[in-house]
């Protein structure tokens, strides 16, 4: 599958990376001009090889997982948590392998484990395959509850399967598309594995085109209305919804949910998707006007209400 030369190159590359790390220490602590020049050269080379090394390692990992059959059930071990996951017929690419090996967004996992307590009411927007959902559910225990929303039908089926695999009966799942309007629908094709194509079609006013003609209609809802409908007052909100966090925060602010429930909020920022005038400063203004303070954390924002920081 991989030649001996491949692994030899990989090890050589890693040796260069390790040497570059030592060079960074020399550069930081030794003021000798000659050593500085040598260290700078090594750092540049190591940085370049570091990128190649990790790319090759990811490729190697993906190739190692090609032998697994569709619907294989994987045993996941995340620190003191053990659970199972399946990924339907999806190719086991980088982001899935990171979940299998419990390496997916370690900062997010650490934040979830630090924030979520037994008995908490958690709201997850963007459940995907259920990796983070499961960790949240294990943190709340059966005395708590997790409501998870995932709009992509194929991902939703995987999410549902994984909740059943782990017997997480205190998790409630909703296959809806969050927007400013209720009562509409968004069309997904049987091949959609994310919502980018669907949102692009909505923005352009186009219909989905698929030779099988088996389009899936996902209802659009306003989050505040859904929360009212299911009588749910979240204490923690986790969002990874590719720019739709702006729409959601606007809604939660207008509807009074932020001031009434005062949930701790962790969300991934997506500046490339924000419209002019509705960027990070706009988001911060929404949150601060509702009594929140925010901290940046590795591409995420962690936000707490000033009257109820973590409790």
Percent of residues in helices comes to 40-55%
End-to-end separation: 52 Å
Under the CATH scheme, which class of the largest domain? Alpha Beta
- Unreliable residue stretches: 1-8, 17-32
Q: Helices and strands: which structural class? A: alpha/beta
**In order across it, which strands form the biggest sheet?**
5-4-3-9-10-12-11
Mean pLDDT: 84
For the largest beta-sheet, the strand count, sense and barrel status come to: 7 strands, mixed
CATH architecture of the largest domain: 3-Layer(aba) Sandwich
Write down the overall geometry.
Answer: globular
User: How many structural domains in the coordinates?
Assistant: 2
What is the CATH fold-level name of the largest domain?
Rossmann fold
Query: What is the strand tally?
Result: 12
- Using only C-alpha atoms, the radius of gyration works out to 23 Å
CATH homology group of the largest domain: Vaccinia Virus protein VP39
Give the SSE string: HHEEHHEHEHEEEHEHEHHEHEE
